[in-house]
Write a structure and sequence with these properties.
Elements (H helix, E strand, L loop, with lengths): L1 H8 L4 E5 L18 H8 L7 E5 L8 H9 L6 E3 L7 H7 L5 H14 L4 E8 L6 H14 L3 E6 L17 H24 L5 E9 L6 E5 L5 E5 L10 E9 L3 E6 L6 E2 L9 H4 L2 E3 L1
Parallel strand pairs: 1-2, 1-12, 3-4, 4-5, 8-10
Antiparallel strand pairs: 6-7, 6-9, 7-8, 9-10, 9-11
Length: about 290
């Protein structure tokens, strides 16, 4: 909390709480006290000058109702969740020692969507884990179709020395892994395209990061759902570090494209109009 206050005093408007299974934060923080990530979010939400709070990466087992309520109730906590499921097969999850079931994962997503307005979710998936059958892969495909993630990082399994999995047979042929990876990438591209196109016509709050790498005549930033948004503009306009409103006019599976609304009150600058370089703007605080 002290670190975030210092950042906010310097003009930082967004922080990301970063940790492996970050939503298990607080388990051993104080003797005889039950502290969770949701307690921290409620306190950070009070910090003057801070506009956005994110956290990554979460584990399905620690997505408690209290944490979901905090995401729903706190205006500074973004409605975006990165929640890896890794496989849609309970048998594979057991071999991975993931400690949850597909039904539990479905329940977390259902509760989040019921409570959190404009809820957005992305995930991680591994194909070709030890012993993965065609049927087990098909269950992963069906779960992705069912939940409709806005984005997914999809990986082919590869053995890592020193892990428990390294003692298991890496028995899915490389060509099969490549084909399953391709199938899921194509599925996710279709789903992302549909989800992003649903935003066309909407007005998005965008935190401007700087010029687009692909087109210097456009600026780029992210909305609260962590989607990239580009719109006409140049660095000389001094919009970096500001929250602006952008109406979406078109979309690709990776990007929203729009036009900035320039009416009075359409922009929100960091407190005291202080400019913060991009490298300092999106600082991550490791938990």
């Amino acid at each position: 909390m002290e670190e975030v206050r210092e950042l906010a005093d310097r003009g930082v408007v967004e922080v990301t709480l970063l940790g492996q299974t970050v939503n298990s934060y607080g388990k051993r923080l104080a003797p005889n006290r039950k502290i969770g990530l949701h307690h921290l979010l409620y306190e950070l939400n009070k910090i003057r000058g801070l506009e956005r709070i994110r956290f990554i990466t979460s584990h399905p087992r620690f997505m408690t109702p209290d944490l979901i309520d905090a995401m729903a109730d706190l205006e500074k906590v973004c409605e975006y969740l990165h929640l890896p499921f890794q496989s849609g097969s309970d048998a594979v999850l057991r071999r991975m020692l993931r400690t949850y079931t597909v039904e539990h994962y479905r329940g977390v997503i259902a509760r989040s969507r019921a409570r959190i307005r404009n809820f957005a979710v992305a995930t991680d998936v591994i194909v070709g884990f030890s012993g993965e059958t065609d049927q087990e892969f098909a269950e992963t495909y069906r779960l992705m179709e069912e939940i409709r993630f806005q984005g997914a990082f999809i990986f082919k399994y590869s053995r890592r020395p020193g892990t428990r999995a390294a003692k298991m047979p890496d028995d899915v042929p490389e060509e099969v892994k490549k084909e399953r990876n391709r199938i899921l990438l194509e599925l996710q591209e279709r789903l992302s395209g549909e989800i992003y196109r649903e935003r066309v016509g909407a007005v998005e709050e965008v935190l401007v990061e700087g010029p687009s790498r692909n087109d210097p005549s456009r600026l780029t930033g992210r909305n609260r759902a962590n989607q990239i948004v580009v719109f006409p503009g140049r660095p000389a306009q001094g919009l970096e570090g500001r929250l602006v409103r952008v109406r979406v006019t078109s979309a690709t599976p990776l990007t929203l494209i729009g036009e900035r609304l320039e009416a009075a009150g359409a922009e929100k600058a960091p407190e005291q109009n202080r400019f913060v370089p991009l490298k300092d703007l999106l600082l991550s605080i490791e938990l």
